[in-house]
Amino acid sequence: MKQPIIIDSDPGIDDAAAISIALNHPNFDLRMITTVNGNVGIEKTTANALKLKRFFASKIPVHRGSSQPLLSEIVDASAVHGESGMEGYDFPEINYNDLASTHAVEAMRKELIASDEPITLIPIGPLTNIALLLSTYPEVKDYIKEIVLMGGSASRGNVTPLAEFNIYCDPKAAHIVFSSGLPMTMVGLDVARSSTLSHATVNELKTLNKTGDMLHQLFKHYKGDDFEKGINVYDAYTILYLLHPEKFEVKEADVQIETAGTLTKGATVTDFNTHFPNCTVVMSVETTEFKNIFIDALTYCK
Fold first, then answer.
1. pLDDT over 90, % of the chain
2. Could you tell me which residues are beta bridge partners of residue 279?
3. pTM to 2 decimal places
């Protein structure tokens, strides 16, 4: 049976890898893609989602979401992903008629309530849309199976010493989501750093299929941390974890969000010794296993 999912995203080069798999893998029933301000501004993240929709000739609706964090100042990662957010590949020209008119939060509410089975939410950008959904329409919690998010770290950050980018962008939203009481899995920096995609593997993608070639060209422009060693395709780990949870090491923890610390804003304070965990934290995956499941998942794409 296909797993119904919604992806909330700020595409983003690594987002492109996650969305490519979710759109094409037979195990998923992707109901919609919603966009949020994050790696670049909302106009560009939405345009990038539409580029992927057009690339795959997909009928999955794309809904534009929040243009700014709940309280924080806007930050972006254009230095990592390029000015457009997905530099490096010549995508087909987008058509804004492909963009659904309903705001992301309203669209998620409608889809959740109408669904015959609970839906898994997969936020792979800042958590602004998800926080607004849960705060505005708390009744939708009964229709959410779980939240599997890319963000956070049980150790060091990547935008400050303690904060990961997606959480740092909107820590208030993250606090709302982590306090929601919903089943939650944090796929953060720990697992990505355990299994960096080597440059040799990136080069293998070029001849895999058209999607592999597209990702190969994007990854060549992706300037994430540890770039000299390889590529950390952070967002793709959420999708791969849902496909193969048995391949990943996880730990239960109580994760709280630091919303206001001068030096610690956006930190995911992770307590593995708690008797009251609120989150499953994905810690690691063996490098060869990651490569194999990543390549296998991409074979379902065009």
1. 83
2. 253
3. 0.95
